[in-house]
Task: inverse folding
């Protein structure tokens, strides 16, 4: 769920600053843009944008260029077809050679096995599965305060394939715990009396703080 937030923030800080903005805030904008591009250089790859499309609040992708959104939609369409177990290749190669048909059937079998391992059971195409993704993308964007967990829970019958994909791509990452801890540590370092620290100093102090604690836990001698 962090991807839409990062993209929105990146969209704001990379736009021309509003007129009358102080030099200090302009420097903050520039620094934020540089840091976001440094730490998330591949955030606009189609595979990373699936989470944005599956979030009903941000599926409009207003923070993306048209070509970036189109690439993300095409990628989502492919994984949607795979999850249904009906790839375009299965339809188009039915009249080709026997070798191609066997290869296609094998690929579909592999997709179904993957779907079973990810979603608990193989997802079968229903009467509305052909337009499930289309209908979702054409619907109005949900309000910002929408509970997306409740949204996809309510949609699990109407849109079972997309609901299963949402559970996979919108799930909280296990690494988020470390991220929260890191932010907490940085908050302790940048106290009221340390607001003038530059970003590089904060980064180095945070690194030292976390690593020294880990070394102490391992009984490693830090200084002779």
Result:
């Amino acid at each position: 769920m962090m991807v839409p937030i990062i993209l929105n923030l990146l969209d704001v800080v990379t736009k021309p600053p509003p007129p009358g903005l102080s030099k200090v805030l302009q420097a903050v904008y520039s620094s934020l843009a540089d840091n976001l591009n440094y730490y998330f250089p591949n955030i606009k790859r189609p595979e990373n944008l699936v989470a944005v499309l599956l979030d009903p609040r941000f599926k409009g992708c207003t923070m993306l260029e048209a070509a970036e959104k189109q690439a993300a939609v095409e990628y989502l369409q492919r994984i949607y077809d795979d999850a249904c177990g009906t790839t375009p290749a299965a339809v188009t190669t039915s009249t080709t050679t026997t070798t191609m048909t066997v290869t296609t059937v094998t690929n579909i079998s592999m997709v179904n096995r993957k779907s079973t391992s990810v979603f608990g059971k193989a997802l079968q195409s229903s009467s509305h599965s052909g337009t499930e993704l289309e209908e979702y993308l054409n619907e109005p964007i949900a309000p910002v305060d929408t509970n997306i967990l409740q949204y996809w829970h309510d949609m699990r019958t109407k849109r079972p394939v997309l609901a299963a994909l949402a559970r996979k791509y919108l799930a909280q990452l296990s690494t988020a715990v470390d991220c929260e801890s890191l932010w907490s540590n940085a908050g302790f370092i940048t106290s009221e009396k340390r607001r003038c620290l530059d970003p590089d100093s904060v980064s180095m102090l945070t690194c030292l703080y976390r690593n020294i604690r880990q070394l102490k836990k391992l009984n490693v001698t830090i200084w002779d």
Q: What stands out?
A: Residues 87-129 have pLDDT under 50 and may be disordered. Residues 162 and 195 are 45 Å apart (CA to CA).
